[in-house]
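User: Some background: our group keeps a shared notebook of sequences we're curious about, and every so often someone picks one and asks for a predicted structure to add to the entry. Today it's my turn. The entry only has the sequence so far, pasted here. Could you supply the structure so I can complete it?
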Amino acid sequence: MAEISEEPGRIEAESYESTESVHLDPDSERCQNLRKLGQYKLYKRRWYFLAVVCLINSSNAMIWIAFAPVADLTASYFKCSLDTINYLSLVYLIASIPIGFVASWLLDTLGLRSAVILSSWLNVFGSVIRCLSVVSVLNMGQSPLFYLFVGQSLCAVAQPLVLFVPAKLAAVWFPEHQRATANMIASMSNPFGIFLANILSPVIASKVDYVPILLGLYGTPAVFACVLATAGISTKAPPTPPSASAVNSSSEPFFAGLKQLMRNKAYIILMICFGAGLGIFTAFSAFLEQILCFRGYPNYISGLCGALFIFFGGIGALICGLYVDRTKKFTEVVKICFGITAMLFAVFAVVSNLRDQPFLLASVCSLMGFFGFALYPISMELAVECSYPVGEGSSTGLAFISGQVQGIIFMVLFQMIAKPYAASRMSSCGVDQIEIYDWSIPTLVMAGLCCVGACVFIIFFHTSYKRLTAETNSVQEVPGVLEDSLPQT
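Assistant: Of course. Here's the predicted structure to add to the notebook entry:
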């Protein structure tokens, strides 16, 4: 494949505001040097790499959450319980825990190319095997759920390999003033896949008989992404580094890095609190349809709420990502968004118990997404900043593993405390469901956990920005001849 043309650009001068955590005087010589980072060659192929990662991430997320917006119809098609359909989402969380450590090691040792291509092939094989569950000839002596769970498990193995990529991709391929934005775009591609699934699943599978079409359509992006990754990604890093930290990259060895993370108080607080938020988000996405159908809301309303949650989340993440790229106020933005999200979750716990309030539900979900999703990419950048020089794969990967572990605990806990009721005409849950569940108590517990996590993070999290400081120091050590070659700012 022909090499993608290069962009011999230079890093633009940026206006950095001082932050308490970095402890830099904006008028100091060190900060002036940081503004003048220049002459690093940038390559257009970084955008191709980013686009492929986004496509794989979106495809994998669509496969994960495909059945959640139509859980009742899927249970009817496969003649199983709602709990069984919920386990299809839970498989992702279970697989990601052991595979997460492998993915972190792979990213920090073999590099981005190996992780991305491997995840794309696993995603394809998993989506194809899932489709076998609706082939009647193959299911004559075998339950269709066998193929469904095997395929889902392969896609679950692929998830950590691509989900841990954004921070590493931003650090290796993008300049300092684009890192948070690149991380935001790659990170938000996963929720974007969930957004598409929430919109498309109720439309495609409007009847029980249309569930096979859902499986086939969701496998198509996986095939396309695999072709682009295999044919178009030929190297794990650009020929020349895009930033000072990439020039002086000295990541800790994998196991040494893990030990260093476990001794980092700020990182541990971030890992636990971010993991709690990620686990609650996972449970919220998986159970939203079941939460709302008990109160009589049809599937298209729950799908719309889930879609708005993610759509406005993307807007919030974009705005906050651009803001943080300019100001470097990682901690302040995360704390503010975390606190507002916790309060909105409490509002949702109350509103979700009301009937015939679709506009109010949609509004609350939109605001939850706007502030909640802003946490996602910025927390990943903050994890790298507070743990540098530990590898990006390890620092972000461990935070995600924390989220998956807590997600499993939350999903099992919430299903246990949901109250079972006999199906009634007042609900819109399923066509063949004998038993439905009241999720009012689980939603209150979700809100309570989110509030606790926000309070812990806001009160106890404090850190310096170690990667930014290292970049500043490295620029200060550059001979004066470099400054002579830079344009005046």
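Suggested note for the entry: The longest helix spans residues 265-293. The domain at 43-232+251-472 is CATH 1.20.1250.20 (Growth Hormone; Chain: A;).
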